[in-house]
Amino acid sequence: MERIIGGKDILSIHTWVDAAYAVHENMRSQTGGCLSFGRGMVHTKSSKQKLNTKSSTEAELVGLSDYVPYTLWINNFLAA
Q: How far apart are CA 63 and CA 78, in angstroms?
């Protein structure tokens, strides 16, 4: 299988994160996220959140908190 990635600027990283509130039997939410430079995905992840949240807004914030470290890591890796 071939993966095609690209972009105008290697330090221009696009990140998308979303959460689905209370979809598991124990009322935990699901988080999904992906990273791109503009063409193709460099990194994707979907996982169950490790704590229960009170609202869909809180689930979105927890999802963002779970996925943003990947963006920071790849940014620091490319800068080095």
A: 24
Whether 31 and 68 have beta carbons less than 8 Å apart is answered as no
Domain membership of residue 8 (yes or no) is: no
Question: What is the tens place of the pLDDT at every residue in 27-54?
Answer: 999 999 999 998 899 899 999 999 999 9
| Inside any domain, residue 2 | no
Residue 33 contacts residue 69 (beta carbons within 8 Å): no
pLDDT at residue 11 tops 80: no
Based on the structure, what is the number of domains in the chain? 1
* 2: pLDDT strictly greater than 90: no
Rounded to whole angstroms, how far apart are CA atoms 62 and 53?
Answer: 8
